[in-house]
Structures are given as C-alpha cells and as structure tokens.
Amino acid sequence: MVLILGAWASVHAQKYLTKEGVIDLYSETSLFVIEAKNQKVACILNADNGEVAASTLVRSFKFKEALVEEHFNENYMESHLYPKSQFKGKILNFNQINFSKDGSYNIQIAGDLTMHGETHPLKTTGKLTVKSGTITASTEFLVSLEEYKIKVEEQYKDRINDQIKLTVHFDLKPM
Question: Quick check: 7 pLDDT over 80?
Fold first, then answer.
C-alpha cells in the first residue's frame, strides 16, 4: 500500500520544465566588456517541494566575437574537460507560492552550483511569476572565477573581472 501511494504521489507531483532557458553572462572592466548568451538551458521545477535543477552545455554560450568564444571555451572554461554546468537546489520559501493561481512572488533560492569541475553553495534571490499555468522565473548573481578555479593569464588580469554576473531566465511549462 505504501509503495502504491508513493508511486501515485510521484506521478501526481506537479513539475514544470523548459529546455530553452536563458543565461546572460556579463563582465566589465575599464578595458574590456565580455557578454554572452546561452539559450539552451534545461530546468525542472518540482512545485510540490520547491526543488530546482538546471543544466547546460558550456559550449552553448554564444559571444559576438568568435575569438572571444573560442578563448572562453578552450582557455577559461575548458569545455572539453568540463562540458556541463549545473545547479541543484531548492526555493526556500516555496510554501508561500500558490502555483495554481496567477501571481508574482519574491523567492529565495539555495543550492549547489557546479562549473569547471568545482561545486560551491549558492544562495540568491529571484522572482517567480505564475500566469495561465506557466511559470516565469528569474534571478541574477555573481560568480567568482577564482572560486571556480578558472585561471586568467597574467597579461589579461586587468581586462577580465573576477566577478562575472549571470542573469538567468526560465519560462517553465507543466510536464
């Protein structure tokens, strides 16, 4: 009986999904601006417990200049060694969200961000909007190149900021 109830609960768990989430990457120094967009981010949200998982291929970041994109993948992110980045966490205040009613909510998210072979805790805030059965979620946070052991050559240290801003946007639909 317990197994049947457990299976029924997992079948009826309300989950939302996208495979076309967006991450904008931005960094600026007085000498250089780095901008990229990734429109191939997968994300799943479990509305029953607030768990969130997102994943992307590092090579999906697109830059205006091909040479910058090549350096990003080969020299910095080493996407041949570390092809994926992912986040696994939870919306801490998910019990304050009514997923069956249109509305807008400020959210707090905590979990682990893995990139470049390094995993570190991440805690940030964001916004979640429920409208007509779909969910729009967004957040913005900084990551440190040094913390994720992404090496910048000495001659470029004045051109590349250690703090990189990531802006994330998901339009999630029921599974």
Answer: no
